[in-house]
Design a protein that fits this description.
The protein is an alpha+beta fold and 354 residues long. Helices cover 48% and strands 21% of the residues. The protein has ten helices and eleven strands. The chain has an eight-stranded mixed beta sheet. The longest helix is centred in the first third of the chain and has 41 residues, at 29-69. It starts with a helix and ends with a helix. The model is unreliable at 228-232 and 286-300 (pLDDT under 50).
């Protein structure tokens, strides 16, 4: 089976190389972008296949020489060590070729909401917003604020923002769920540790063609936007609330001064939530697919704990702990993303083999 897979990878990679140099493809911007994307995605698997083919040839040659020559320490070492490495490469090739999540290349909308814990939860929601924004910047993605509801003590009651760039969902989808913080609040005179939470929802941004929204299903209300404490920040009815009657989903936007801009932003969020709902229904119907996810992404699921007294961050899905909480909250999430992605691939491979 592995030989066939290696052959497929080598053949497809050679085809893509030809297409990348084809003037007809180069002149077609969309086609060139698609070929380039597939080429980049296949590269890791192709590098593994190159090492596999080379090592297998070396092993076969070493065995022939040993059969003729009798004994050579270097050849003997190769013959003893190569089978183990070949097994590792086989697993790596299979993992590299596991079918990707079709939403991985999309932009994402991130919604962070303060959970249990009052003021401390709002401050923690602010910390998560900074952490994810900095991680996005570190990975070369652009961010766009969509909606913010600041808390009086600092942080946010809720905040929604977009992360834009190819592959954004493949990186940030693992952040969905309930995040928990354990620390001593500044207002705590007894020095007691409090536990607070914030929920993070990561939605692949839907294109209009992916999610059809019947305008007759929408109830659109406009009203005057207001700031913290109810003070008016706008003298016109520019805030927009859109209710999708069939699903009951409600989206409100008031950050922009233009009613049209608020409506456009609200529709982006509505489409993303409808896509998320559709994906959840699909996963519920296919038990194997649900099993293949690293966590269900449901907001009620505790995914990570940030413990300040012990200076550690623990991801409960993969039992991974970092003892550098400051670096993690400054956007250093790479270790968690890589481990979660590897676990997702392993589980998808197991599900595909069943």
């Amino acid at each position: 089976m592995i030989e066939s897979l290696v052959e497929q990878i080598e053949s497809r990679f050679a085809e893509l190389e030809k297409e990348m140099a084809d003037p007809a493809v180069i002149s077609d911007r969309q086609r060139y972008a698609e070929v380039g994307r597939e080429y980049r995605e296949l590269q890791p698997a192709r590098e593994l296949t190159r090492e596999y083919v080379t090592l297998k040839d070396d092993l076969d040659g070493a065995r022939e020489l040993l059969a003729e020559d009798g004994d050579d320490p270097e050849l003997r070492e190769l013959v003893e060590g190569a089978p183990g490495r070949l097994e590792e490469l086989e697993e790596g090739i299979r993992l590299a070729m596991v079918e990707r999540d079709p939403n991985d290349a999309k932009n994402v909308l991130v919604e962070i909401r303060a959970g249990t814990g009052g003021d401390e939860a709002a401050l923690f929601a602010g910390d998560l917003y900074k952490m994810l924004s900095r991680y996005a910047e570190e990975r070369g993605f652009a961010t766009e604020a969509l909606s913010q509801s600041p808390a009086e003590v600092g942080g946010f009651k809720e905040v929604t923002f977009a992360i834009k760039g190819e592959g954004a969902y493949s990186i940030f989808k693992y952040e969905g769920g309930t995040h928990r913080v354990q620390r001593v609040p500044e207002t705590e005179s007894q020095g007691r540790i409090h536990t607070s939470t914030a929920t993070v929802a990561v939605l692949p941004e839907a294109e209009e063609v992916e999610v059809e929204v019947d305008q007759n299903d929408l109830q659109i209300d406009v009203y005057r936007s207001s700031g913290p404490g109810g003070q008016s920040v706008n003298t016109t009815d520019s805030a927009v609330r859109i209710t999708h009657r069939p699903s009951g989903i409600v989206v409100s936007m008031q950050d922009e001064k233009s009613q049209l801009q608020n409506r456009e932003k609200a529709m982006r969020v509505l489409r993303a939530r409808l896509l998320e709902r559709e994906l959840a229904e699909q996963q519920a119907k296919v038990a194997a697919e649900r099993k293949a996810q690293v966590g269900s992404g449901e907001r009620s699921e505790k995914v990570r704990t940030y413990n300040f007294p012990q200076g550690r961050v623990t991801d409960h899905r993969i039992k991974l702990t970092s003892h550098n909480i400051d670096a993690v909250l400054a956007g250093g999430l790479g270790e968690f993303t890589e481990a979660l992605a590897a676990e997702e691939k392993r589980q998808r491979l197991e599900a595909a083999a069943v």
